[in-house]
Amino acid sequence: xxxxxxxxxxxxxxxxxxxxxxxxxxxxxxxxxxxxxxxxxxxxxxxxxxxxxxxxxxxxxxxxxxxxxxxx
Length: 72
Description:
By secondary structure, this protein is mainly alpha-helical. The chain has helices at about 1-35, 40-70.
């Protein structure tokens, strides 16, 4: 049961980070859309946000798989 609790905790933490990543991604894309001059930082924020969201999705799917194994 301990590994399952860790997986749930990790998924919750990554879920919270992904919410922050979506907000930061929105702000970065807003700057990109406005056409500011130096957009390297904004694109880096978008890439990092995508990485966090993908990690959250993988973690959530793995955790759900473990929950289904325990419930079976």
